Amino acid sequence: MLSFLSLILLFSIIAGQLIKIPLGSGGLTLLDITVLILDIYALTKIKYGSIKFPFWFKLILIFCFIGFISLLFSPLKLSLQQFLISISYNFRLLAYFSFGYFLTLNIFPSLKKDVFKILIYSGIILAILGILQFIFIPNLIFLQQYGWDPHYFRAVSTFLDPNFLGAFLGLTLLLILKNSQKLFSKKFQFIFFALVYICLLLTFSRSAILLLGVSLLTFSLLKKSIKLTILTFLLCIGFGISFYIYTQLVLIPKGINREESASFRISTWQDGLKIWQSSSIFGVGFNSYRYALIKLNPNSENFTNSHGASTNDSSLLYVLATTGIIGLVIYLFFLRSILWLPVLLGLIINSFFINSLFYPSILIWIILYVGTEGLSLLRHSSEILSRHKVGIEPPTSTI
């Protein structure tokens, strides 16, 4: 059973992009509102005299400060409205990671206890909804008028995007293998793993299978597990077969050219580099990427009004373009300070193709991980290093 707060957070993640208050070119999702309310509640419970910020939280505070400075001195000459829209994401990012900090302070003990249930259950439910959507609503061209891509015969679930859904499902599969033994019997572990994997296949997202493959392969190497290595290759081969079938039955008959998406992604990378070159130290201003695109290409109105125009397809290029070299260095240190190696490598590889590191549902995944096992693993690693320094033999495995 989940606590009341856990159920609310679970529902907020599952709601994805379906429940959203539109604001300008973006909006507040139910997850944003839930995190904000939990933060406000935590602020009434925190003991201010004993506040100690962990290293990772200091890094995110520095990053947000750099984001503010980059906006303040942006070469784009933003209007007041553009400045306020841009800086709102700074506050949003700070709100999310403050929630992770409050988790470490044990302000939400029942929710903290349920973290892995929330993450795994949300992945399973999203997979079920994605499979149902694939069966009953395969053609999403009607969403194009609202700024979404018109995906055809791809699972998108409530995220309305197969790549972000695939990334979330890939992380779910990793958690099912690593943390579900205490939640399910082997029978249900297999059923839920198969269910989530099938939905990931139906996303036909190459970036998602890269995340899963890199994460599981790293995990198998850390565990020195041949079985897990074999499983990783089998899962990737299964995706390759499904993608071939999808190409033959859907892409070719419908004249859909997936190579165009690859070409478009390269184009967005080039745009990101051009924007960064215009202000290499502090960038053009955090979350002002849309306005930089308009300045770079004034005739791209159709694209800049879409949901994807607010960021670059690469998370790291997005950070580099909007906060410069200084912001990127701080952000990379921050990521290394919070994430377990398989998750870190998988997400970074995935983030070269979609802006997954700043997508709300994946961001909350990172936050919840930070508030629980992520920090315990880091403490464990520190203990191992300190033992090694004083000549104590470390254990054979850190997992």
Describe the structure.
There is one protein chain. By secondary structure, this protein is mostly helical. The protein has one domain. The protein has 16 helices and two strands. The chain has a two-stranded antiparallel ribbon. A hairpin with a 2-residue loop joins strand 1 (20-23) and strand 2. Mean pLDDT is 88; it is low at 377-399.
Helix content: 55-70%
Query: CA-to-CA gap between the ends?
Result: 27 Å
Helical element count?
16
Structural class: mainly alpha
How much strand?
under 5%
List keywords for this structure.
disordered C terminus, mainly alpha, 399 residues
Brief summary:
Helices cover 69% and strands 2% of the residues. It has 399 residues and is mainly α.
Topology, please?
Layout: H1 4-15, E1 20-23, E2 26-29, H2 30-45, H3 55-72, H4 80-104, H5 109-113, H6 115-136, H7 162-179, H8 186-203, H9 206-223, H10 226-254, H11 258-277, H12 289-296, H13 301-304, H14 315-338, H15 341-350, H16 360-389
Helix pairs in contact: 1-2, 1-6, 2-4, 3-4, 3-14, 4-16, 6-7, 6-8, 7-8, 7-9, 9-10, 9-15, 11-14
